[in-house]
Design brief:
147 residues, mainly alpha, Helix Hairpins, 2 helices, 96% helix
Length: 147
């Protein structure tokens, strides 16, 4: 009779342990799911900003080429009126190029910050995956020790 009671107590303890482990696993799985979504959002934001930065660089390079082309045209102008028009256009293009360079610098800082955010989110995800792996390992050890 005493052995039977002892065995029942052990079974109840094992059931409680398994229930607690299952709840912990569910919590970690939920957190992992939420964290995966956070990583996906951070990744999308980062990729969109990288694309915007690449477009801004292309736009700036095109504007620099336009300035060079207009300067060559100014040098070949036949009269002062044409030269003045080219100089006016060049000045406007240079102002625009300067503004774009500042915007590009700001965007570079934004991309760097977003990259750091993405790394942080991935690190959180990795920690949750490690917790889930540890829970799985613990459950396997518990099952093996009961055999």
């Amino acid at each position: 009779m005493e052995t039977l009671l002892s065995e029942i107590r052990q079974l109840r303890h094992d059931l409680q342990t398994a229930a607690i482990a299952a709840r912990r696993a569910q919590i970690v799985i939920y957190r992992l799911h939420e964290q995966t979504q956070a990583v996906d959002r951070a990744s999308e934001i980062f990729e969109n900003s990288k694309t915007a930065l690449a477009q801004m660089q292309e736009q700036r390079e095109y504007q620099a080429a336009q300035i060079k082309r207009f300067e060559e045209m100014k040098d070949q102008a036949e009269n002062e009126q044409q030269r003045a028009q080219f100089e006016s256009t060049i000045a406007r293009f240079k102002d625009q190029l300067e503004a774009w360079e500042q915007q590009e610098q700001d965007l570079r800082l934004k991309v760097s910050a977003q990259e750091a955010d993405l790394r942080d989110e991935k690190a959180k995800q990795e920690r949750l995956e490690q917790q889930l792996d540890q829970l799985d390992h613990d459950l396997e050890e518990t099952a093996a020790s009961e055999k």
